[in-house]
Amino acid sequence: MKFSTIADKIQITAASSLTANPGHDPDIAGVAAVDQALVGMLSYIEGDKFASFVGTTQTNALILPQNPVLQAKATERGIAWLSTPDPRLAFARAIALFYTPYQPAPGIHPTAVIDPTATCGENVSIGANAVIQAGVYLGEGVCVHPNVVVYPQVRVGDRTVLHANCTIHERTQIGADCAIHSGAVVGAEGFGFVPTPHGWEKMEQSGIVVIEDGVRVGSNSTIDRPAVGTTRVGRGTKLDNLVHIAHGCQVGEGVVMAGQVGMAGGVTIGNRVILAGQVGIANQAVIGEGAIATAKAGIHGDVAPGEIVTGSPALPHKVSLKASAVYRRLPEMYKIVQRLQKHLL
Amino acid sequence: MKFSTIADKIQITAASSLTANPGHDPDIAGVAAVDQALVGMLSYIEGDKFASFVGTTQTNALILPQNPVLQAKATERGIAWLSTPDPRLAFARAIALFYTPYQPAPGIHPTAVIDPTATCGENVSIGANAVIQAGVYLGEGVCVHPNVVVYPQVRVGDRTVLHANCTIHERTQIGADCAIHSGAVVGAEGFGFVPTPHGWEKMEQSGIVVIEDGVRVGSNSTIDRPAVGTTRVGRGTKLDNLVHIAHGCQVGEGVVMAGQVGMAGGVTIGNRVILAGQVGIANQAVIGEGAIATAKAGIHGDVAPGEIVTGSPALPHKVSLKASAVYRRLPEMYKIVQRLQKHLL
Amino acid sequence: MKFSTIADKIQITAASSLTANPGHDPDIAGVAAVDQALVGMLSYIEGDKFASFVGTTQTNALILPQNPVLQAKATERGIAWLSTPDPRLAFARAIALFYTPYQPAPGIHPTAVIDPTATCGENVSIGANAVIQAGVYLGEGVCVHPNVVVYPQVRVGDRTVLHANCTIHERTQIGADCAIHSGAVVGAEGFGFVPTPHGWEKMEQSGIVVIEDGVRVGSNSTIDRPAVGTTRVGRGTKLDNLVHIAHGCQVGEGVVMAGQVGMAGGVTIGNRVILAGQVGIANQAVIGEGAIATAKAGIHGDVAPGEIVTGSPALPHKVSLKASAVYRRLPEMYKIVQRLQKHLL
Q1: What is the largest CA-CA distance in chain C?
Q2: First to last CA, chain B
Q3: Catalytic residue among B247, B300, B317, B343
Q4: Neighbours of C199 (CB within 10 A)
Q5: What percent of chain C has pLDDT over 90?
Q6: Is B3-98 assigned to CATH 3.30.70.1350?
Q7: Hey, are the CB atoms on C183 and A183 less than 8 Å from each other?
Q8: What are C98-115's pLDDT values in tens digits?
Q9: Domain ranges of chain A
Q10: B321: contact with A, CB 8 A cutoff
């Protein structure tokens, strides 16, 4: 594919070397990381950490930020370039021009076990040994990979993909255009037990899980149903692997949770919140819209909209940064205080 | 169901509005959270955080704590109420009056693959594509959901439920009335490797996992078998999702572990210990009976019975609370110390 | 088996009670932990914590460290012993003399679903309901347990074992002599999304996962493929359960990661690094060869080769130890500083 064709197709180009030199329009055979790209492999540069690669990369085609210095350097080295406010987004679109994700053809494998009361839209694909139980509805174009188990009365929206070995429990509602990755467990009963003198008495979990459209649930993540009502994950939210959403949580739209994030019951997560890896949130906490928790934050109370929190127990990010900078000097500080004390008190 | 019938059935009522006004006995159609309950939906109130809902809820039936002020308020608003020392337990029992959990009928699905040397009690249910290997014994009323794999020589006690896509490894012994949730892996070989000049040499894991009666293992949790002897999880213990119990751990009775708790090899957990979310415990540590670790605690040594520990490295809870309160003031304190030092030393 | 035969077979004996007393050569029927071993059960002692057991154990055969005091004590109690510089390694080899791990016989179960374009070496074992898709190659002696799903174009090296219910995604390359444990997910698409005004846009993950020879992937661990290029796990590396390796990570050889370790995208881990339980590593960090991170460390930047880091944010281990020792005295220190301030400023 010609470099100029890529520039046309990704639709977010701000400027390109083609203006100055329309004849320098190399053939591009694929995409690669900037430190590994060879001639004919399109790559991209984003952030200070990678900027120096414009001087060393072996590729002859780059997506650059809107930085005249980098553009000049690329031109000098004979690298065709296009610049954009968002090189990573442009690169994402370039990948999609060269890559066709694996998707099984529509059709139902003869070894799939499908209850006669289950119903499907058009063009559904159901893989080998998948088990679809009573009353399930699979929308148009749904893809169920091998060995998936769907418990009774589940509803799956159009074009959603259920990857191999995931399990969807009874009455779960999944929207359209979702991806539930391998090993994920959605809709299993929440961890509800009440202490009694005779041990832990189970609280039946009669509620359901609702996953709205465009949600991604990562491999081996778990989303539990509540005692009453709904555990909800909002439209367009993306969960990484090994994430745990407990019973009754209300997760907003466009939220991102990185790997191994976990939350206790009844947590509310506002729209567009970002939780970095291994963040934990205590029960009933309310995280305001657009808030950010950095990696390993331990959140015990509410977080205001837009706030950035860090550490465990979580503090405002700037407070935490300053406190942790002093933390490492504690032994030195302690000695000084002891000397002062001896001297003066 | 009449409100009075519910009051009778849950068996822990201390007082109720029916004494003063037997005629006010509404029909109850279901249960709901207090902020979502409408007329005819029984709800409950527990804790200060939810107390104000007695003045705003739209339901006409509530389970209340033994609090005359809340009772009077409910009466004033025409809400039928019953009060108990433990509203959450009463509500748990009320849910069970309205909810029938999904349970497959007894019988063996024709696609299940069962070794001829496996044996079963009465009324066993084995789902589609489940695989039961040589020498396995399944007790009376055991329910094996679809796509479960049971390795050879496993023993499963009466009425235990194995949810879809869980895996039980060779020689594991599971008691009666347990629930092993989807994706859980029980009895796989522990992480035993010995360093040598030529790399890590495997230590064979010849031991077994024993799960006693009434244990709950959450979705995608893992419990490993040891090199020699037994990894044990005691009677009535409840594990949430994504919990990791390493080889050779001895977990007592009535223990609760929240999501993503993990422990290294050879840890001993006393009876009725509570580990909150994401707690980690180092190898060979001994956690005394009734101890509590708050969320994200990192425990490197032994914890005394009944102790509450917090933070990483874990400290006594009160010490940790005070230290973390000062922590956020470290930058301010550091400045004061620097001024004092300049002034005086 | 005679004690003397064991001493011969484990090949790392430095001295033994047989020299002084060749006639005292007990029959050994098995192996056990030192606090549980009875007569005829070989055990071992390593470390100060267990040394006192030489005076109380009920076994009549021990593997000891090269410690004359312990040897004399064992001789005095009539315990046959052998000593070695590495008792744990010797015990590992002794276990292997008494234990035959479960391994299914070669052969393909009739319920396995194998694409006609998949190919296998000799002596492959494929269990019930396993699904092997188009273009897959399984090397000689590969063992695929029941209900495993292998997506198209995967290559699995000789003698590798895929445990029940694990999932290997498209184009993954797994070396020889690996073990992928139950529920693990290898090669699923990485967590790549780019923010746009209209929500998170997916970055297709066109790369692959490469697992080199002798790697162990624990139960329910996840290893994701990257947008471009390779996620790599080096030869002889051992991963415990519930570990998360994100897209594009480069993990070296002989690395050990304990349970619930997680890392963000593009992390580089040098050879022979050791990451203790629940460690987290931020994206693009580089961990130098032989570095060690203690349990729960939160690593945000690079770590030098051989360095030991502790805490979150991670500090050099000694700095962290000293700082955390002062941390618990913060309230006391704060009071002193306040008194000094009042007195003097």
Answers
A1: 87
A2: 79
A3: B247
A4: 15
A5: 93
A6: no
A7: yes
A8: 999 999 999 999 999 999
A9: 3-98, 107-321
A10: no
